[in-house]
Amino acid sequence: MRTRGVLLRGLAVTTCVALLMLSACSWTGSEEAEKPRPLKIPIIEGMTYYVGGPVVANDSFGRTRFRSFAGEVEIPPSRGMVIGHKDLGNKAYEYRVWINGDPLSLQRGTVDDEGFLLNDYQEGFAKGKLVGRLYFTYDDEKEKLSTKVEHVDPETGELIKTEYKERDYVIGGDDWEEDEDDEDDGELIWEGNIE
To answer: For the stretch 61-79, what's the b/e string if a residue is b when 16 or more beta carbons lie within 10 angstroms of its beta carbon?
Structure first.
């Protein structure tokens, strides 16, 4: 019986200490702490937000592509990956991706006849600043994707250089081998279809 009393007292003391610590952590002593923290991700009219990531499938060419997004939320959180998708009408769309509240990319395009998202424009960001723009052109007869890549100075917004690339629709074609003159210098390099 004595052990049971000691255990109950220990449990009561532990519970009280935990509650005291919890209340101390939530009290800052200032009125400013009561104000809601501003959202880092903008609420854009007509945009639906997701935290579950893309729903992917293979199209008739064998490409793995986005069909939709999963994990719809009413208010986007400021932590983790958030995708915002907006239907622009006439099969056009825009979607944006944020990581921990900072913009990562913006994509625009159309929904194809199979129901897949077909990007024709993309912007990429690093530390919240624009670093590149991509323009995609699809040739279904040749099963080729042509990409125009514009590298942008994140500080000035000026165009640094433009590159053109052509790739097979399906990974594994001859032009998917590494270029011998490509070096990994730690910079963000976009190549090919990022869908």
So the answer is: eebebbeebeeeeeebbee
d(CA 151, CA 131): 6
Residue 116 has what DSSP assignment? -
Residue at 26 is within a domain: no
Domain containing 126: what range?
47-176
Question: Is 13 contained in some domain?
Answer: no
The pTM of the full predicted model, rounded to 2 decimals, is 0.66
Nearest to 143 by CA among 114, 166, 120, 122: 166
Cα–Cα dist 194/165, whole Å = 13
Give the angle subtended at the CA of 178 by the CAs of 53 and 147, to the nearest 5°.
60
Q: What is the pLDDT of residues 157-192, one digit of tens each?
A: 999 999 999 988 876 545 444 445 555 444 444 444
